[in-house]
Each structure stands twice: as C-alpha cells, then as structure tokens.
Amino acid sequence: MVGGHLLEQSLDDERVEAVSILVRKNMERTHPKLTQIKTDFEHLSDVESAFRVDTVFCCLGTTIKKAGSKEAFHTVDFEYPLEMARLAKRQGAAVFSVITALGSDPNSAFFYSRVKGELEEALKDIPLAGIHIHRPAGILGNRNEDRPFEQFANKALNALAPLLIGPVKFMRPVQASRIAEVMLHEALSADSGFKIVESVNYQ
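RESULT FIELD:
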C-alpha cells in the first residue's frame, strides 16, 4: 500500500530520473521513467544489477496469517529486506529505506515487533551511507488484500485520533500516502547515516 504511493510520487517527482520496481508479476502501469523487473524474491541475487541505483526502498510486509507460518513471515519481513540491503551495498547504492513498525524491539515478547526489531539491528551492520528506518503506527489506506483485524484496529484508532494527544500522540494511525511522502523526502535529502523516523514525524 505504501509502495504504491511511493511509486506514483517518485514518478511524479522531477528530481527522480528513473524508477525500477521488483515485481512478482508485471503491472499494467506504464511510464517513461518506469522499468519493471520480474523477480523471484527467493533468488534476489538473480536481479542484483537492479540494485545499482541511488536509493533502494523496501515496503515489504505481510502477516503471519497470510504468510502461513512464523517462519514464512520471518522470510518476508526479515530475510528479504536484509538481503536487499546487502545487495544495495554491493551495487553502490547510497540509501536503503525500509518500513518496520511502531514498537519494533529485538527483545519484544511479541513476535511481530521482535522480528521488526531484529531487522533494524541487523541493518546496523551494513555499511551503507544512509539507512532510513520508518516506524509508522497503524497504516491507513486502501489495501489490495483483506486484513480484517488490522482494518478494525485502525478504524478504531482513527476514530480516537483526536483524543490521542500529548504522550500518546505517537499511536495515531498514519495515511500510507504520507509515509511514502516522508520516505521520498528523507531519501532525497542530504542527510546520511542510520536514521529512525518515528510515527509522530508523519503527522
């Protein structure tokens, strides 16, 4: 969902010269700046040359229910992003920008938050000029998949948003388009280093 907005914003931004996207199957979307690269994510090294860019954005994410198991979830939310960062480094990319989640913590008792936190820790060992970690709270927008519990939770939080002020403001859900906007802005800025963008920065 965030990736779709990020794609459109990148194509519309005059500062972005070209956009390559890794896809499991080709999209109908066409644009002079857009190249689609059909990819088996189990064999990312087969498309290593695609990482010869300035910035790599990773908006991958699933749920344990959709993945089918904790192991499969770990593959999508930890192994794939980490391998992308390694390929980005090997191909000379300057920035790797990735979405984790609010509450990411390698020591968390919650599996989801622990995996996200473990990814953040692992990324610290990759010597890229810039690593941008984005930690949004609930993400609002139209998904191409059904996540009933997440949708219910986000609707509830959205209804309560006016009351989420002060020390609990960070719990406000965020529009996917806004997350994409901040990701693109941060990537195109001159800042480098390991940067964590917390959810309040999208509001």
